[in-house]
C-alpha cells in the first residue's frame, strides 16, 4: 500500500483538484484507492459528493474503526472531512500526535493507494500526512508567488523526513493552471526546473493546463474523467498519474493494460489547444 500526499502551503494551486483526479484515475484503472481528506475546508469531500455529517477523518484519527467512517464513491472510498477537523490542533494535543494517522492506518489493508489531501497550512493534520506518506507531490501554479514559496515547502517536507518519516520522498513538483498562450508560464517552468534540481527532485513532465471543465465537474460533484474524458484536464491528469505511478512504484509494477481509454462524452470539450513547448530562455546554472 502506497501513501501519497498532495501539499502546498499556498491555496488555490490545484492541490485538491489534483488529489481528486489522481484518486479517480487510479480507481477507474483498476486499483483499490482510499482517499483521506485531511483539510478542514472539506473541498475534497464536497467535490466527491460525500456526506459531511457522517463520521470520517476526524473520528478515524480519534480511534474509530475505519468501517464506521468510510463512504463509497464511484471510483474510490473516502474518509471524508467534517466540522470536527477544524478543531484538530486543539483536540489533538497529546504526546505523539504527529503519528495519529500512521497509527490509525496501521491495521488497514486491501488498498493499493491511499491519497491524502492536505490543508494549505503546516498544521497538525498536514504533519500527520507527511509522517505517514511514502511520497509527496507539491502542486504549484506557474507564477512568482508559488516559485518563491517552494523553499519553505521543501524545508517543511525535509524536516518531516528528518524527525518523523525517514522514508518520505518528494515525488516531484506538479505545475497546474498552465496557460500555453503566455510566455510567463514557459519561463516559470524553466525556473521550477532549476529549483527542482537544487532539491534533488523533478518537475512532472506534463503540466496541467487551465480548463474550465475542472470547475464544472466539481460543481456537479463528479470526477473530471466521468464529466469529460477527452478534455485537456483529463488528458493531462491521466498522463500525470501514470508518471506518478512509475515514480512511486520504482518500475516494479506496470500500468494495467486494460486501463480505460478516453471516450467521447456529450459534454462539450472546453480547452486550449496544446502547442509544442519551445525553450526561449537558457536555464540558470
Overall description:
The structure is a single chain. With 285 residues, this protein is α/β, with parallel strands linked by helices. It has one domain: Rossmann fold (3-Layer(aba) Sandwich), CATH 3.40.50.300. It has helices at 15-28, 43-48, 57-61, 88-91, 100-105, 124-132, 144-163, 183-199, 212-219, 224-227, 232-249, and strands at 2-7, 33-38, 70-72, 77-79, 113-118, 135-141, 169-176. The chain has a 7-stranded mixed sheet with strand order 3-4-2-5-1-6-7, sandwiched between helices. β3 (70-72) and β4 (77-79) form a beta hairpin. The protein starts with a strand and ends in a 36-residue tail after the last helix.
Primary descriptors:
alpha/beta; Rossmann fold; 285 residues; disordered C terminus; 14% strand; seven-stranded mixed beta sheet; globular; 39% helix
Question: In a few lines, what is going on in this structure?
Answer:
With 285 residues, the chain is α/β, with parallel strands linked by helices. 39% of the residues lie in helices and 14% in strands.
The CATH class label is Alpha Beta
- CATH fold descriptor: Rossmann fold
What is the beta-strand fraction? 5-15%
Quaternary state of the chains: single chain
Average per-residue pLDDT, rounded, comes to 89
Q: Gap between N and C termini, in Å? A: 38 Å
Secondary structure category: alpha/beta
Do you know the CATH architecture?
A: 3-Layer(aba) Sandwich
Sheet having the most strands? 7 strands, mixed
What count of domains describes the coordinates?
Answer: 1
N-to-C order of helices and strands: EHEHHEEHHEHEHEHHHH
DSSP, total strands: 7
Q: Helical amount among residues, as a percent range?
A: 25-40%
Amino acid at each position: 500500500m502506497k501513501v501519497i500526499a498532495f501539499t502546498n502551503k499556498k491555496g488555490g494551486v490545484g492541490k485538491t483538484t489534483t488529489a481528486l483526479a489522481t484518486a479517480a484515475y487510479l480507481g477507474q484503472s483498476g486499483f483499490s484507492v482510499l482517499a483521506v481528506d485531511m483539510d478542514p475546508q472539506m473541498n475534497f469531500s464536497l467535490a466527491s459528493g460525500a456526506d459531511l455529517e457522517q463520521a470520517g477523518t476526524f473520528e478515524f484519527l480519534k480511534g474509530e474503526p475505519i468501517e464506521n467512517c468510510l463512504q463509497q464513491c464511484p471510483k474510490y472510498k473516502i474518509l471524508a472531512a467534517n466540522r470536527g477537523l477544524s478543531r484538530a490542533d486543539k483536540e489533538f494535543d497529546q504526546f505523539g500526535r504527529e503519528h495519529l494517522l500512521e497509527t490509525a492506518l496501521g491495521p488497514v489493508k486491501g488498498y493499493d493507494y491511499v491519497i491524502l489531501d492536505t490543508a494549505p497550512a503546516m498544521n497538525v493534520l498536514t504533519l500527520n500526512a507527511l509522517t505517514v506518506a511514502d511520497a509527496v507531490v507539491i502542486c504549484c501554479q506557474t507564477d512568482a508567488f508559488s516559485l518563491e514559496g517552494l523553499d519553505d515547502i521543501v524545508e517543511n517536507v525535509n524536516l518531516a523526513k528528518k524527525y518523523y518519516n525517514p522514508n518520505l520522498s518528494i515525488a516531484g513538483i506538479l505545475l497546474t493552471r498552465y496557460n500555453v498562450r503566455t510566455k510567463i508560464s514557459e519561463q516559470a517552468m524553466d525556473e521550477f526546473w532549476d529549483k527542482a534540481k537544487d532539491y534533488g527532485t523533478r518537475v512532472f513532465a506534463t503540466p496541467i493546463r487551465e480548463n474550465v471543465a475542472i470547475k464544472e465537474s466539481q460543481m456537479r460533484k463528479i470526477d473530471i474523467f466521468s464529466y469529460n474524458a477527452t478534455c485537456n484536464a483529463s488528458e493531462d491528469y491521466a498522463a500525470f498519474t501514470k508518471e506518478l505511478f512509475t515514480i512511486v512504484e520504482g518500475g516494479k509494477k506496470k500500468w494495467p493494460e486494460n486501463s480505460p481509454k478516453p471516450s467521447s462524452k456529450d459534454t462539450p470539450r472546453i480547452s486550449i489547444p496544446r502547442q509544442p513547448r519551445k525553450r526561449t530562455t537558457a536555464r540558470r546554472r
